[in-house]
Amino acid sequence: MALILSRRPGEEIRLICGDEVGDEEILAAVRGEGLAVRVDGVYTSLSREPLKGLTVRISIRAPRCIDVVRTELLGRIGNR
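^ that's the sequence the OP posted. Answer follows.
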């Protein structure tokens, strides 16, 4: 199952591995399941300036040991 988020220009999504997850577990999960990021609904323009109100839908599929977090929520879940 994928997480689907909407992002505007300049907004970020972070993929974070918690301290309780070992390096070998992360590596095995990424090798086995991989990471998948898909962008839906891209609007293009010849201008290099982002269009006002532009929103892109992104779906992310990651192993359970990797948290997918919107950067504006990082302070709410602890400093990582």
